[in-house]
What does this fold into?
Amino acid sequence: MPTSAPDCPFCEIVQRDDPDAREVYRDEHVVAFFPTEPAVLGHTLVVPREHVPDVWSLSEETASHLARATVRLAGAVREVVEPEGLNIIQSNGATATQTVFHLHVHLVPRRHGDAIGPFWPEETDYSERAKDQMQDRVRQACREIGRG
It folds into this structure.
């Protein structure tokens, strides 16, 4: 049974309480709609019908439904928009630019020279030692996942 949170604008869309929502897809697990201020035409958000604030709160079952719908909707956007590329963006936490705390996936069709611009820095200056240390720490955390 989908859950909702008070004052969550995406829960309002899921519950069909937002008359201005530009919904494009709905099934028993997800809803997809255009954001109020799209980065480009065709920009689509995919949200679980269940209120999940971020990826750390996401169950594997809900993640599976969300992933399948994201792939299908990416195909629909590609067919209609005919972009040169596509960003699939999922942000968690204010520092990562999450502004609505209901997990959502952005499908952003891209064209060369569009208003969005690049996402990544051209280069970084992390030492090889720092990269090795981080690799070891993440690898160890991944081993712990397998034991859980």
Notes: The CA atoms of residues 48 and 62 lie 7 Å apart.
